[in-house]
């Protein structure tokens, strides 16, 4: 049995490699039941979430991710999301690989967002705003830059020092990066806004979006969470990673439907439809688009398969 570390994933698999692995994965499809998640109550901090996410192909391999989302880890200087992925042999069902699930999750989540952006963001998008400075943020920046000519990155976080620190790290990758405490001004000049937070209140507002902006929403994986206000959802053409998951769990979508700002029919497509050519992505440079993801077992599965193949080459 092979053990794949976080370092192995970064060494052998580029951001674009994972984008293409997920493009093929969503086009092919696999058996991927809606994930099971359980609330883990905490006495002195926000509750944590326990996730189990299986997937398999008929007559093919299978895999499962076991993960935990712990908001309180920010104060411990630890990732909010941690986990392990186990890949099973296609014939025997025996474990064939154990993969660092924390790194796999951040990388595949960023790849899914970038895959969506490849259909939804303007081709000439150069200016990106990153809302949040946790473990997801650098992965999202690199992934989006693998599909669009991102040059300028502005980072906002409730803790301004963390935004400034990440900006310095991102600048070393060749981007013109800076931190800001003025999210509104940053958003008003952005081509692409990516949000990866654990917020339960809107951070980005619809009247901040200029024509042609693409909004990528990674946080708010529970109905009680959200990163945008209703005006963002009403203003944008809406796409999701999967209809089933986003309409049940994606807080930005669920709350906008509940308030009457949008209808379920306003969700125009998901990554299955986009990759198979069943739905159209961006139709003009002037329209605003939004992509809401909550995570899908398929993403972990095809990312895990791609990682193991790359490591074994």
Automatic annotation (TrEMBL):
BP GO annotations: carboxylic acid metabolic process
PANTHER family: KETIMINE REDUCTASE MU-CRYSTALLIN
GO cellular component terms listed in the entry, alphabetical order: cytoplasm
Recorded family membership: Belongs to the ornithine cyclodeaminase/mu-crystallin family.
InterPro entries assigned: NAD(P)-bd_dom_sf (IPR036291), ODC_Mu_crystall (IPR003462), ODC_N (IPR023401)
Gene source species: Thalassospira profundimaris
NCBIfam families per record: PRK06141.1
Protein name: Ornithine cyclodeaminase
This protein's UniProt keywords: Lyase
The organism's taxonomic lineage, starting at the top: Bacteria, Pseudomonadati, Pseudomonadota, Alphaproteobacteria, Rhodospirillales
Its EC number(s): 4.3.1.12
Top enzyme category: lyase
Single GO term (MF): oxidoreductase activity
């Amino acid at each position: 049995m092979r053990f794949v570390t976080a370092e192995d994933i970064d060494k052998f698999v580029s951001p674009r490699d994972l984008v293409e692995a997920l493009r093929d994965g969503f086009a092919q499809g696999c058996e991927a039941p809606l994930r099971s998640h359980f609330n883990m109550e905490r006495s002195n901090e926000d509750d944590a979430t326990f996730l189990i996410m299986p997937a398999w192909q008929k007559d093919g391999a299978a895999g499962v991710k076991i993960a935990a989302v712990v908001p309180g880890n920010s104060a411990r200087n630890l990732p909010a999301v941690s986990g392990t992925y186990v890949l099973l042999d296609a014939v025997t069902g025996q474990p064939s690989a154990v993969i660092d699930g924390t790194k796999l999750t951040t990388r595949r989540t960023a790849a899914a967002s970038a895959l969506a952006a490849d259909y939804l963001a303007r081709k000439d998008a150069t200016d990106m705003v990153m809302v949040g400075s946790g473990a997801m943020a650098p992965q999202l920046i690199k992934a989006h830059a693998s599909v669009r000519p991102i040059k300028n990155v502005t980072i906002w976080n409730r803790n301004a020092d963390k935004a400034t620190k990440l900006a310095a790290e991102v600048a070393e990758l060749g981007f013109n990066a800076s931190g800001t405490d003025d999210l509104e001004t940053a958003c008003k000049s952005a081509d692409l806004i990516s949000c990866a937070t654990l917020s339960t209140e809107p951070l980005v507002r619809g009247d901040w979006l200029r024509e042609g902006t693409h909004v990528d929403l990674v946080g708010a994986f529970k109905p009680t969470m959200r990163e945008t206000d209703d005006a963002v959802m009403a203003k944008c053409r809406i796409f999701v990673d999967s209809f089933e998951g986003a309409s049940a769990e994606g807080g930005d979508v669920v709350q906008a439907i509940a308030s009457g700002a949008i209808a379920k029919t306003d969700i125009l497509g998901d990554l299955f439809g986009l990759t198979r050519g069943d739905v159209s992505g961006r139709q003009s440079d002037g329209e605003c688009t939004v992509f809401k993801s909550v995570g899908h077992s398929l993403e972990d599965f095809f990312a895990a398969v791609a990682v193991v193949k790359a490591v074994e080459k």
